[in-house]
Specification:
Chain lengths: 111, 113
């Protein structure tokens, strides 16, 4: 069974600080995706990483896919209150378009 | 905007009653999914569809059925609601245009009393 474990589960930081959250598995994934979810809404896709070692940037967010395609990280530079939310990683179950989700990292950025 | 809407947004129902949740999309996406989200469990797949009348089970399908008679509508039915089915239900769509990444609806909060 493929599992995605995210850490930390909760993170509370001050505005302006940097942070990294992690998504790990013992299984190889063909791709991984990151989503952000705000209260009362569905998750919103931030990025898809496909190639081992790939780095993608989205403004102050930097996403990296591990060389072995078993893990990924999300780094936020100079966090802002608008970054507050639940961050989820997801990957396709082998050979399908069904996605497995991690349990998420709940981030709170204090002004 | 992928044009995906869920209805109702909130529902309270009694144990033992049937309940149907609706997901509607406007952009002819082939793949549609129903997930439930619960604290400590994250998002878990209930059922999915890869075309009209083509559906399959996910990891938590017991007590749920689905139907897709038109491309744009994917219905989730709780045959006889139980308290364990109190949850937030999300519909999602995906296709090649966004590398099969999901676009989610805003969710339905279902409470079974």
């Amino acid at each position: 069974t493929q599992l995605l474990e995210q850490s930390p589960q909760f993170l509370s930081i001050q505005e302006g600080e940097n942070l990294t959250v992690y998504c790990n598995s013992s299984s190889v994934f063909s791709s991984l995706q990151w989503y952000r979810q705000e209260p009362g809404e569905g998750p919103v896709l931030l990025v898809t990483v496909v190639t081992g070692g790939e780095v993608k940037k989205l403004k102050r967010l930097t996403f990296q896919f591990g060389d072995a395609r078993k893990d990924s990280s999300l780094h936020i530079t100079a966090a802002q209150p608008g970054d507050t939310g639940l961050y989820l990683c997801a990957g396709p179950s082998s050979g399908t378009y069904k996605y497995i989700f991690g349990t998420g990292t709940r981030l709170k950025v204090l002004a | 905007d992928a044009g995906i809407t869920q209805s109702p947004r909130h529902k309270v129902t009694e144990t033992g009653t049937p309940v149907t949740l609706r997901c509607h999309q406007t952009e002819n996406h082939r793949y549609m999914y129903w997930y439930r989200q619960d604290p400590g469990h994250g998002l878990r797949l209930i059922h999915y569809s890869y075309g009209v009348k083509d559906t399959d089970k996910g990891e938590v399908s017991d007590g749920y059925s689905v139907s897709r008679s038109k491309t744009e509508d994917f219905l989730l039915t709780l045959e006889s609601a139980t308290s364990s089915q109190t949850s937030v239900y999300f519909c999602a769509i995906s296709d090649l245009r966004n590398n099969y990444g999901y676009t989610f609806g805003s969710g339905t909060r279902l409470t079974v009393v």
